Amino acid sequence: MQRSTDRIYTTHVGSLARPPALLDLMKAAAEGQNVDPAELAEAERLAVTDVVAWQRAAGLDVITDGEQTKPGFYAYVRDRLSGFEPRPDRDPMASFRAEIDSFPEYYEQYL
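Now predict its structure.
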């Protein structure tokens, strides 16, 4: 953890926009298509390099990877933590329905 007694450090929290090439590869992998692991790794490496450069250029003090390599929070939980499973009697998107209905063009591509 970085600390300072002279000023408040700045950073951001959460994901930063991913480049289209990386999004396309992530979407293909999520759909079960055959994705070259080396191609995905290179796209992730380039995306992280770019977001790190953007954060430095913006003057942020605490730099992150912008979650470029993570397809989303829920997938991260499912893939990295044990003890979580979907409830068969629930719509996993129910709590997002109002947002999905408000931005259908975005979610048509996102989902």
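The radius of gyration is 17 Å.
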